[in-house]
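User: Look at the shape:
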Amino acid sequence: MVTALVLALAAVAGTGTGDVSFVLPSGVRVRIAEAPFKAGECRVQGCGPEDKACLINGHVPFGTAFGLPQSFVKSIRVEYQGHTYGLDVSDMYDAWGGRPLEAKYKGQVAVRYFGGRCSDGSNCHFRGLFSDGAGSFVAEWQIVSGHPVRTVLTDSSDVMHLFTIDGNIDGPPDYQ
C-alpha cells in the first residue's frame, strides 16, 4: 500500500505554486496556498547534492528529499460553520503542487490527500498527505475549543500508511 501511495503521490504532485481550494466530504472548505521558495530569503545549511543534511531556518524541511525545495506552503485555512482557522504550515515544502483532492485508479478513488471533519465550529480534526514520492510526508491538526495545533508532522512510512487506510484520512471516529 505504501508503494501505491508513493506512486500516486509522484504521479500528481508537482512544484506548482498558487492557491487551491476544495470542500471535503464533511463539508469543510480547505484553502492551500503555496509560493515559490527563495533560498536567499532563508538560512539554508546543507541541502546540496553532496550534503547529508538539509536545514532551512534551523529546521528539517519536509517535502524535499534531495536539494532545495521549489515551493513552500504559505497557508492552509479551513472554514466550517462561519469559523475560519489557519493551520500551522511551518517546515512544509513542495507540498501540494496543484494536485486534485483525490487520485483515482481504474475509476475508483485510490487515495484522498486531505481529510477531516468538525464536530462543531470550534472542534475539528484534519490530516493531509503531501509532496511527492521521495519527499512524501503527512501532517495532522486538531482544533480544540477554537485553538488550532499541529499534532503530527512526519515522513514516517508507517504513519503515512495509517493515513491511507480506508477512512483514516478523516481522522479517528467521533466517540460520544
About this structure: Residues 2-170 form one domain. The two ends are 31 Å apart (CA to CA). The chain has one domain: 2-170. The first helix runs from residue 2 to 12.
